[in-house]
Amino acid sequence: MNEALLEVRELSKNFAERRVLDSISFTVKKGQTLGLLGPNGAGKSTAVNLICGLLKADHGQVVLAGEDVALGMKSTKMRLGLVPQDLALYEELPAIENLRMFGGLYGLKGVHLNHRMEAVLKLVSLSDRAKDRVANFSGGMKRRLNIAAAMLHEPELLILDEPTVGVDPQSRNAIFDALETLKAGGLALIYTSHYMEEVERLADHLVIIDHGTVIANDTPSALYTRLPVQAALQLDLFAPLETQLLHQLESLDGVLVVEATADGRSLTIKLKEQHLAFSCLAFLQQHGQLPIHFSTAKVKLEEVFLNLTGRRLRD
Length: 315
Prior knowledge:
alpha/beta; Alpha-Beta Plaits; 4-stranded antiparallel sheet; 29% strand
């Protein structure tokens, strides 16, 4: 089992009379990618700020590689990289000069700094724009440069707070490619996002926070099993399904519900497991109901998230 790199221990934080975080605990192992999720106002950003030492906890502790983050030791800070949601760049400077400045803050200089700037620009596919002013960059390019700046000092843990907000699909894909390269190299990641498909692609562990508490802390596959519906079969028929056959279809093992359109020619069959779609198709074939088209889909992370946090609007 991988050794724990980050330990969040019973962390609590109040703002005035409001408790924003209430004794949250979780760990991040070396090389692990943890998706940190929650509705607006759930406490995600506060948790990130506490982990980075930007806020002081009212109770609890953040331990990174055996060191208490609250002590503010340089050795601890050098293990951590932060990609904030708000861009932290100097627009009038070229990309390379932004990196040179951030490298200086990390104590990097000389040949080593030059090598690191070259490496991180290549990582985020900005090598050919190194001498261009950041003011002329697209939103996606700025986001990628933000990641490059956070990776200059080769941290062991990289925290990304909504890193793809407002970027085009090409830049989003470039960000994913960069993060998957870092992940393959053994870097630990904490990734916060409102885009569930991003978290599904990257994370191998999930922590969901709501109303300041951890309501889920598990692998994606384990969280999927909390839902009765694990998959769905969607199909279009040549002719409407007779009521008797519809009831028989609903009674098949593993079929939870069958939803039909008003004309009865399109069905959505919700299943306990994806492989049960084969028995549904076999049943329809036996009764002369070959579909024009069919497709299967597994449950999405968004359904797990909504099931745990509710569907009520938060803002």
